[in-house]
Amino acid sequence: MEISLRLYQEEVVQTALKGENSIIWLPTGGGKTRAAVYVAKRHLATRPNAKVAVLVNKVHLVDQHFEKEFLPHLGHTVKMVHISGDSPEKDFFGRVVRDSDLVICTAQILENGLINTEEDKHVELTDFTLLIIDECHHTHKDGVYNKIMARYVKSKIEGLRNLPQILGLTASPGTGGARTLEGAVKHVLQICANLDSVIVSTKDYEPVLKEVVPRPIKKYDIVETRLFDPFGDHLKMMMKMIHEFMPLTAQISLREMGTQEYEADVVELEKKGVERENRLLAQCALHLRKYNDALLINDTVRMVDARRLLEEFYSSKMENTQDATDIFLSGLFEENQVELRLLASDARYENPKLNQLQRTLLEQFQDRNSRGILFSKTREGTRCLYDWVCANRELQQADIRAAILTGAGNGANHMTQRGQRETIQKFRDGALNLLISTSVAEEGLDIPECNVVVRYGLLTNEIAQQQASGRARAKDSVYSVVAQAGGREMRREKTNEYLEELTGRAVEQVQSMGPREFRKKVLELQTAAVMERILASRQREEKRRRYDPAQVQFTCRGCFCAVAHGDDIRVVNNNQHININQNFKNYYKVGGQVHLDRTFEDWEPGRVISCAACGLEWGMEIKLRKVVVLPCLKIKKFSMKTPQGNRTVKQWKEVEFLVEEFDFVEYMSNRFPDLLDLD
Predict the structure, then answer these.
(1) Is the pLDDT of residue 250 over 90?
(2) Burial class of residue 206 (count of CB atoms within 10 Å of its CB; 0-12, 13-18, 19+)
(3) How many Cα atoms are found within 13 Å in the side-chain-facing hemisphere of 607?
C-alpha cells in the first residue's frame, strides 16, 4: 500500500530522511506513527543491510502498530515480526532479529536482549540501523527507554561507530515538573540529549495540522460542594480512635485525612513500625491507609463502594487475628459496621460529583453513535465507576455500554493482555461505547474517534492532560473536567494549561538555538549523565555488597516472625527470587493456584503462599523445569534484620547483599545426592 503524507508530516520527516536523529513532535491524532512508517519504508529501501526496531512502552501497542500501520504499508516488501511478553519469539529474540528486517516489540524485550548473553537471545545496538521510539518523552530517569539510550550515548561518546539512527515520537515532551521557561528549556534539552536527537515540529503547515487535529471543546462541569458527609465523618471518627490507640511515642504529624498526603504519612508510619518491630504501630498504619482509601473513594464515587472496600479488607483480616492490636482494629470495624451500612444507604448524602457526571454523560450520549472515555485515577476507581454506570437506570436507558480498561499485569485488579485486546476491539466494533479507563488509554491507543472525554477525580501532569484531550478527535467533541469549584482538580487542570503553553515556548527556544550551541549543550548533558550513571553504578555495587548474606535475617512484615536468611535466597533469570532452604516450607501455607496470562520458558506458576502465622501473602510457588517446586518471594512482604538495624525495601535490587544465581544441577545434587549415582 502506498503511503501518502499530509504536508505537515512531509515537513517533520525531512531530518529523519537525511539519516539524522530526530524527535517528531505532533499532537495526538496528528499521524506520528504514519510518518514513522514512511521513514522506515524509505530507510529499508535505501540503506544497505537495513534493520529497524520499533519500540513501544505498552504491550497492546505492539499488536496495534503491527496490524494498523506497519503491516498494511510494509508487509509485502519486508520480513516483519511483532513480539510482546506473551510471544514465543521472545525466547529467541536474537535469532528473530537476525532473520527479520523490522521488529516491533516492547522496549523491555530489547533491553532483555541487550543484557542476555545466550546467543539465541542476545542482540547489540549495532545490529540495528534505525530505532523508532514511540512515546519517547518517557526516555528519562530509570525508565527502560533511557536504559537503552544510556548505552547508546555512552557508546557514542566512547567513539563506537555504526550505531543506529534514532527517531523519537511524542505528543508532548512536557516540562519535567518545571514551572519556569528556563527549567522547561533544560528539560526539553535533556530529552534531546537522552535521545541524541533534535526536536522537529511543523512550522510551515500549522493551519493544516489544526484543521486535521481540531482541539475539542473544553468545559468545566462544576460540582456543588458536599455540604454534609456523615459517612465520611464517621470514617474519620474511627480513624481518630485508631490514632488514640497508637502509643504516644509513635505519634507523628499526620496531614489531612482523605488526601494523598495523608496516605504518604501512614505509609511512612507503617515503615517505622516495621523497622522498630512495633506491630501495633505497623498494623494501625496499614488499617489507617485502608480507611484513607475509603475516604478517597467516598469523595470520588459512592458511599457503598467505600464501605465495600473496607468490608473486603476486614473479611480477610478477621481470619488471622494475632493479638490485642488485631482484636481492637477488627472489633472497631465490627462495632461500626451497621452504622456505616445505614449511612451509606442514605441517598440524601450521596456524592454530588456523580450527579454532575451523570448529566455530562447523558448530554453527550444523546446521539446513539456517541463514543467516550471516562478517565479515573485508580483501578479501584474504574471498578466503582463501572458498577455505578451499570446500576444507573438513566445511563442504561441512554444505551451506554461500558467496560473497564486498565493496565495489563498479574495482580488481582489487573487486566490480562487478552482482556485488553478484546475490550479495545469491542469498542472499535461498537459493541461498547464507553471505556472507563486508567491512564492506559491516554497514550498511543488506536481507538475510534471519541466525541466525549471526561476526566474525573484526576490530579495529573500536563502530558497526561494533553494525551487525554487528544482522545476526543471527533468533530465538535467535548473534553469535560468534572471538578469542584476551586478544588484541587480544577487548580491542577488550570496549571496544566499553563504548562502546556510553557512546553511549546520551551521547544521553540530549543529549536531556535544555533547548531553549535545546541550540540554543545547536548554533549554537556550527555557527558554529565554518563558520569552520574557510572558513579551511581559503583554506589549500587557497594551497597549490594554491604553485608554477608548470612548476616541478613528475613522476618514476616505482618508478624515479625523470623523465617529465612539471605543465603537461602537464589535468583532465577535475574528476576524470580526463590528460597532453596527446605525448612522454609514450615513457615508458610499454600492457597489457590496462580494463573498468569503468559507462559515462560523454564518455569510455571504454582500456588499462592502466605505466612502460616499471620496470613500475609508472601508470593507464590513456581515450578522450575517442570520438576522442582520452590517458593518465589515478594521482597516488600518482608523486613530484613541487618547488623545496622532493620530494613525494608520495595524491590529486590535494593537489598544490601549479593544474591547468587540459582544453579539447578547443584541444587538437585545437594537435594538428591544419589541422583547421578550410576552404580
Answers:
(1) no
(2) exposed
(3) 9
**What strands lie across the sheet with 617-624, from one edge to the other?**
588-593, 603-611, 617-624, 628-633, 576-579, 569-572, 660-661
The dihedral built from the CA positions of residue 659, 665, 670 and 672, taken in this order, carries a sign that is positive
Looking at residues 122-141, what average pLDDT do you find?
96
- Containing 576, the helix (H) or strand (E) segment is strand 576-579
Cell numbers that stand for 545 in this block:
555488597
174 and 320 within one domain: no
- For 186, the grid coordinates are 533544560
Residue 74 domain boundaries: 7-211+521-529
- 3-state class (DSSP) for residue 452: strand
Say if residue 157's pLDDT is above 80.
yes
**37-56 pLDDT tens trace:** 999 999 999 999 999 999 99
Residue 663 DSSP one-character state: -
- Distance from C-alpha of 465 to C-alpha of 494, rounded to nearest angstrom: 10
Alpha helices in 276-416 (DSSP H): 279-300, 303-317, 324-344, 352-364, 379-391, 393-397
Query: Is there a domain that residue 505 lies in?
Result: no
Does 240 lie in the same domain as 199?
A: no
Q: Grid coordinates representing 523?
A: 554533549
Half-sphere exposure of 423 (CA within 13 A, CB side): 23
Residue linked to cell 552404580: 679
**Cα–Cα distance, 638 to 563 (Å, whole number):** 9
- Please say which residue of 348, 380, 406 terminates a domain: 348
pTM of this structure: 0.89
Tell me: do 205 and 76 sit in the same domain: yes
Residue 570, H or E segment: strand 569-572
Choose among 300, 296, 328: nearest CA to 310: 296
What are the DSSP calls for 266-292, one per residue? HHHHHHHHHHTT-HHHHHHHHHHHHHH
Q: Which three cell numbers stand for residue 52?
A: 529497524
Is 139 among the domain residues? yes
Do the beta carbons of residue 555 and residue 601 sit within 8 Å? no
DSSP code of residue 546: S
* Residue whose grid cell is 519486508: 78
Question: What is the side-by-side order of every strand in the sheet holding 372-375?
Answer: 217-223, 478-484, 452-456, 372-375, 434-437, 402-405
User: In terms of DSSP H, where are the helices of 135-259?
Assistant: 144-157, 181-195, 206-212, 230-245
Question: Which CATH number covers residue 651?
Answer: 2.170.150.30
Which residue matches cell numbers 503462599?
609
617 phi-psi bin (left φ>0, alpha ψ -120 to 50, beta other): beta
Domain co-membership, 158 together with 90:
yes
Q: Which residues have C-beta within 8 Å of that of residue 371, sequence separation ≥ 6? A: 427, 433, 434, 448, 449, 450, 451, 452, 474
* Alpha carbons 88 and 604: distance in angstroms, whole number: 14
Number of domains in the chain: 4
CATH number for the domain spanning 389: value is 3.40.50.300
- The whole-angstrom separation of Cα 45 and Cα 512 is 33
Give me the half-sphere count of Cα atoms (radius 13 Å) on the Cβ side of residue 537: 8
Nearest to 275 by CA among 610, 639, 32: 639
Reported as a single tens digit per residue, the pLDDT across 395-428 is 999 999 999 998 776 565 678 777 888 898 899 8
Tell whether 61 and 195 lie within a shared domain: yes
- Is the domain of 322 the same as that of 246? yes
Residues whose CB is less than 8 angstroms from the CB of residue 411 and which lie 6 or more positions away in sequence, other chains included: none
Residue with cell 533469570: 573
User: Cα-flanking dihedrals φ and ψ of residue 20, to 5°?
Assistant: -95, 150
H/E stretch holding 528 reads helix 515-544
Give 447's DSSP letter.
Answer: -
* Placement of cell 512502552 in the chain: 57
